[in-house]
């Protein structure tokens, strides 16, 4: 963070490119909420000082986590692998080059936004010592220990030593004990962030209730069967590509659990008769994830727009076309690489 602030100075184009690079790096944990909290705490003062539109920050961060959420510990990849009964490691290796195509698009979008803001604002010469000083005080605090803890956590996540939630809870407890050994300071820190945490938990419970209604009443099965029955026989060989496109609206209007465990198995069963493997269907189903991040059922997005004080509906409209672009870029990459062939 300190390096990026030093490099970008007052150039909006460099700030936007730095946003994409830093957003992708922080999103290595595959979680939107932590990415938004860490990034905005670091660079929000810089955005406000330069006058760069906060909507551009929101869009680039949403696109970044939309791709990085496909990491094995992000959630959707594990769901798709479980639903299709394929190895999550093999699935991720197929996804990796497709994700790189998506990340290239994220950087391109950041460049477009940066050029727009450079034309609007120009290159502003300001003293960034205050922002750099804030970052220095944060990053130098027990830097070596926190770096080692982060690396150890990532290694254990990749190796799958324990469930993801358990590993994060253990790492959080250790980080709290070392960085804030005083119980009073721990309570103050928890109280400071409790509002955001409770809001996310409430939204997750609400989303769970909605999912239960969809599944318990049979609406998910009805939608899945209606979709399959409405497809003409000639569409069978194209089911892999169609699934990638269908995953955008379906994961927008329903949760990942409902799509991957309710809709995907039905589509895959039909696709098998056309020579499309479960692994290919798993890959196809994940390509629509960047659009899923804009769904009203995704709790972390509420956190981001809340921090930036943006209107949720306006953020959806501003970000949707760029998210669709990410999906189309990854789909094109999957076709060119032969992961989702046009004909079987």
Automatic annotation (TrEMBL):
Its main location: membrane. Residues 2-288 form the Citrate transporter-like domain. The keyword Cell membrane does not apply. It is found in: Membrane. It comes from the Bacteria. It is a multi-pass membrane protein. The chain crosses the membrane at residues 54-71, 91-115, 151-177, 197-219, 231-252, 258-279, 291-310, 322-342. Keywords: Membrane, Transmembrane, Transmembrane helix, Transport. Signal peptide: none annotated. InterPro entries: Cit_transptr-like_dom, Citrate_transporter. The keyword Transport applies. This is Citrate:proton symporter.
């Amino acid at each position: 963070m300190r390096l990026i602030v030093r490099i970008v100075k007052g150039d909006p184009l460099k700030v936007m490119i730095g946003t994409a690079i830093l957003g992708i790096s922080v999103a290595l944990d595959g979680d939107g909420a932590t990415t938004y909290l860490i990034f905005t705490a670091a660079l929000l003062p810089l955005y406000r000082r330069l006058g760069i539109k906060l909507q551009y920050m929101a869009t680039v961060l949403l696109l970044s986590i939309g791709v990085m959420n496909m990491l094995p510990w992000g959630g959707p990849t594990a769901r798709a692998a479980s639903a299709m009964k394929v190895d999550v490691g093999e699935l991720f290796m197929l996804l990796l080059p497709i994700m790189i195509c998506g990340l290239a698009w994220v950087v391109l979008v950041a460049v477009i936004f940066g050029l727009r803001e450079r034309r609007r604002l120009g290159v502003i010469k300001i003293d960034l010592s205050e922002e750099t000083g804030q970052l220095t005080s944060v990053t130098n605090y027990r830097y070596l220990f926190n770096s080692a803890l982060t690396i150890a956590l990532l290694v254990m996540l990749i190796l799958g030593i324990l469930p993801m939630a358990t590993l994060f809870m253990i790492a959080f407890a250790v980080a709290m004990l070392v960085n804030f050994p005083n119980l009073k300071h721990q309570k103050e820190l928890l109280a400071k962030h409790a509002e955001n945490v409770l809001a996310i938990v409430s939204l997750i419970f609400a989303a769970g209730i909605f999912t239960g209604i969809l599944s318990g009443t049979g609406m998910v099965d009805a939608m899945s069967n209606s979709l399959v029955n409405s497809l003409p026989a000639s569409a069978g060989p194209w089911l892999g590509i169609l699934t990638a496109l269908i995953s955008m609206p379906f994961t927008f209007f329903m949760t990942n659990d409902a799509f991957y465990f309710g809709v995907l198995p039905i589509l895959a069963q039909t696709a098998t008769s056309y020579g499309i493997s479960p692994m290919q269907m798993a890959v196809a189903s994940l390509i629509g994830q960047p659009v899923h991040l804009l769904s009203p059922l995704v709790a972390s997005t509420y956190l981001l727009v809340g921090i930036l004080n943006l209107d949720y509906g306006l953020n959806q409209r501003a970000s949707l076309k760029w998210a669709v672009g990410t999906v189309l870029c990854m789909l094109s990459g999957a076709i060119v690489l032969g992961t989702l062939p046009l004909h079987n």
